[in-house]
Amino acid sequence: MLLKPFSGVLNSQARAAGNVDDQRRRLLKAAGLGGALAAVGGGTLLSSPASAMRTSARIVIVGAGAAGIAAANRLDQSLDGAEITVIDRRQRHLYQPGLTMVATGIWKTGKVVDRNDRYMPRAVNWIQDHVAEFDPDANRVVTTGGQVVPYDYLIVTTGLKVDYEAIEGMSPDLIGREGIGCVYDNPEHAERTWRMIDHYTTAGGVGLFTRGPGGIKCAGAPLKIAMLTEDLARRRGTRESLEMIYNSPGDGLFSQPDMDDFLKQEFPSRDIAINWHHRLKGIEPEARRATFATPDGDIRIDYDFIHVVPPMRAPDPLGNSSLAWQDGSFAADGNWMEVDQYSMRHRRYGNVFGAGDCVGTPIGKTAASVKAQVPVAVENLLSVIGDRETVASYDGYTSCPLITGRGRGILVEFDYALNMIPSFPFISPYREHWVPWVMKDRMLLPAYNAMLRGRI
Ligand SMILES: Cc1cc2nc3c(=O)[nH]c(=O)nc-3n(C[C@H](O)[C@H](O)[C@H](O)COP(=O)(O)OP(=O)(O)OC[C@H]3O[C@@H](n4cnc5c(N)ncnc54)[C@H](O)[C@@H]3O)c2cc1C
User: Fold this and answer.
1) Does residue 422 fall inside a structural domain?
2) How many CB atoms are located within 10 Å of the residue 450 CB?
3) pLDDT for the residue numbered 412
4) Which residues form the catalytic set?
5) pLDDT in tens, 127-160
6) For ligand 1, is residue 46 a contact (CB within 6 Å)?
C-alpha cells in the first residue's frame, strides 16, 4: 500500500503560532530522542520497557474509549519519560459491540459495562472532563471546566455523536416508549430497545428498521437488529404476525459488494421487505408514525415498532474546530476529523493524529478498525517524535461478524478497496457459519480487552 506522507502543508497561522512549539519539539529530539526507539511493528509488537524511547514530550489523548485507551497503553509501553495526559469525563467503559446482543435479549447489560480505571495506565494523567475547544494552532485544548492543556503531540479519539436531533420528534428519552428502539450510545438504550423488541416479537404488527445516511459506527448493527428480531419471532412462533420493513437511505444495504448481494437476497427470502431511498426524517411517537424523505417526496408509515438509527457526526468541539475536514464529503457528511487515511496523521497539523470513529476515512468506524488504526497512529507518532520517516500504513481494514440469527453469522472482513480479506481461511466470508457467532458471543470481548491493554 502506498504511504501518503504528511504533506507538510501547515497553514500560515499554524506556522506562526507553532514556531515556539516546533522549537520545543526540536529540543526534545535533541535531548536524546535519537537513542533507543520504540518498535511497534506490524501493529502487534510492542517495545519492551528496556527499549522504550526516552522523551519528555507532552502527549494529550482526547477520548478514553476503545481507541484512546489502546493508544495510551501503547504509548505508555513505548516511551520513557513522556508526559501522557488522557482527557475524558466518562468513567464507565462500554463494550459497544455487545450492544446488539443486549438489545436482542441475548446478553445482560452488565456484560458490556466496565471501568476505565481498570485499563488506564498508571503513569498517565487522567483529566476527568471533556474537551470543549480544540486549538491546534496554539497546540492546546481547553476543557469544559476551563482547564487549558498544552501539548507537543495530540491524539484525537473522541468517537462520534449520535445526532438524534436530526430526526424531527426524536429524543433519547423516547427509547423504550411508544415502540421506539435505538441500540446506540449506551447499555440503558440497548436494554430499553430489548423491551420494545421483546414486546414486538410477541404482539406482532408493523416493524420499521432504519439506517442513518453517511458514516455510522458499525454499519452492520442496523442489519443485525433486523435479522435477530426476525430470528427471534420465528423461534417464538410469531413470525406470521410481523410485517417487517427495512428502510435504506440509498440503494444498497452494505458497502462491501459481495455482502450487499447476499443481503439483497437474504432479506426478501426472510420476508423482510426493503424500501430503497427512504431516509428517516421524523417520528410522531404518540401516533406511532414515521416520515421518510424519498425521491417522490415525504412518505408517512404507521408502525408498531421502529428501530431508529440517527445520522452520526463528529462531536461538536471536534467538528467545529479546524481539525475537521474543511470541504468535501467528509465535511458535508458529519464534520469528521481530517487525517491522511493511510498514516492516520492530520493532513494539516503534523503533530496531530486521529483514530477510531471520529476520523473521516472512506471506511472504518468499528472496533476492528480501531485495532488496526491505533498501532499505525502510535507507530507514526513515535517516528515523528524520533525524527524518523512515518512508514506505518492503515489499509482500511474493518470487520463485522454479521450475525444473521442466533447461532450463525458471516465474518465480513474487508479493506479500502472493498476486497474481502479473510483472516481465517477455513471460514468462508460468503456463507453463514457457526464460528462467527461463537466469536461474537464468546471471543471478541476478551480480544477487545487485550486491545485496550495494548497487547494485540
Ligand atoms: C450497536 C453497536 C454495535 C457495534 N458492533 C461492532 C462489531 O460487531 N464489531 C466492531 O468491530 N465494532 C462494532 N461497533 C463499533 C465500535 O464499538 C466502535 O467503532 C468503537 O467503540 C469506536 O471506538 P472509539 O474509541 O473511536 O470511540 P468510543 O469507544 O465511542 O470512545 C469515544 C470516547 O471519547 C469520549 N469523548 C467524546 N467527546 C469527547 C470530548 N469532547 N472530550 C473528551 N472525551 C470525549 C467519550 O466519552 C468516549 O469515552 C459497534 C458499535 C455499536 C454502537
Assistant:
1) no
2) 13
3) 95
4) 218, 400
5) 999 999 999 999 999 999 999 999 999 999 999 9
6) no
